[in-house]
Amino acid sequence: MTRARIDYIPVVYVIGLIIGGLGAMMLLPMMADIIAGNGHWQTFAILSGFTLLVGSAMVLATRSSINTEKQTTYQQTFIMMTCIYAVAPVFGAIPFFFGAPHLDPIDSLFEAISGVTTTGATVMTDLESQPVGILIWRGLLQWIGGIAIIVIAMAILPGMRIGGMQVFMRHNYDAFSPILPRAAATARDITIVYLVLTLACMLAYLWSGLSFVDASVHAMTTIATGGFANYDDSFTGLGAATEYVGVVFMILAALPFIRYVQLNAGNILPLIRDTQVRGFLILIGVSCAALMLWQSLDSSAGFEVTLRKSLFNCISILTGTGYASDDYNSWGSFAVTVIFLLGLVGGCAGSTCCSIKIFRYQLLLANMRVQIRRMIFPHALVNVRYQGSKVPGSVMTSVMVFFVVFLGTMMVSSLLLAMTGLDFITSVSGAAAALANIGPGLGDLIGPTGNYQSVPATAKLVLIVTMIMGRMEMLVIYAIFSRKFWRG
Description:
The chain is an all-alpha fold. The protein has helices spanning 9-25, 27-36, 41-63, 74-86, 88-98, 105-116, 132-155, 157-160, 183-208, 212-223, 240-253, 257-264, 269-273, 275-297, 303-318, 333-343, 358-376, 393-419, 424-435, 443-446, 457-471, 475-480, 483-487; strands at 385-386, 389-390. A two-stranded antiparallel ribbon has the order 1-2.
């Protein structure tokens, strides 16, 4: 039997376009440094030219061999997705190595991958003294990663039947028409929504009192639900108005972007009827109320402060943004447990959010209800239904496999981190924060008041792999390491 050869030309072509795009993006922090009057712009100028040269060479070397009439295979798509999050960040890391922070290679790669995967875990300290170009570059990496994952989640993952994403090809988007045949149109419309939300968020941050640079960077990292901030203390001390702006736009970024496209087309019903949107908003209400009640029992802060801190930090962790406006480690064991569990839920599918996602829990609960009914009424004909439609058994299998793989990967990552000398809390919360792309973990070392600078280099390598796996929904990575994948 002859093995089918994988055509790598489309993969090299797309990765070349992405690398070239990163090179062009480096011109923005370069111009910011020029305007700020510091000499760091020269680093970005040189690195931009180098990155553009590499990307252009890859594109030019493969463009003439691209067959536009031939569909991309799943093998090519899997490899392409892996390269986006494994190769592109290498070029994104160069400014951290040669630029003002002068991070070592592992720290540079960690910061770049944390940015592109929108995890938000940082190894950088003294952010207030960093050149404006570096701060903007961190924001741009997360902003690019945010739009990338939306397009992948809407145009690629459903067709691959990964983790139950195929339910969004069937009934969720009837008003928009099938996704895959309109991948280009979907990407264009979502990009417009992404740009509009980013601009609106920036204007709102400006209104709240932030400077233009702070408003721009925080808008990019808020809409990407990434969490890179311009200050070591994140949102602590930025003011109540800024926190409320963050709350609003983190929620907006966590909703399915396709609903905004439908809303713009004059169809509001899909948004109102969306089961996962309702579930997401209910979860916010319940969890924030629980945190407020808990804090009110042992806190002298007023109602408004307690409400704001509970809302902001709860939504930040639930959406995987990872901002912090208070040290929630000091809120007590109940609050810390709630916040840890919220990080393992995530927002809506088709948003910039990470983690397991609301709809998978809803499908799992629906399946549990059906199984209980079948136990009570053995002869009853009951089926799992989601948004009024019957869910095929293959979808439920896919969802349950995703849960098992997620928990298994988190356990292995925790063990590997513990082997590097990290304590139990840091190992488990660090693995969860990396796999769910949340950012901060628990404890003094990597909690809301700390960062990943002091984590051993070996542990950072484990976290780098874990962040990539989490952003790519894990199964893609496991598929690539399968023999059958390479046999076609």
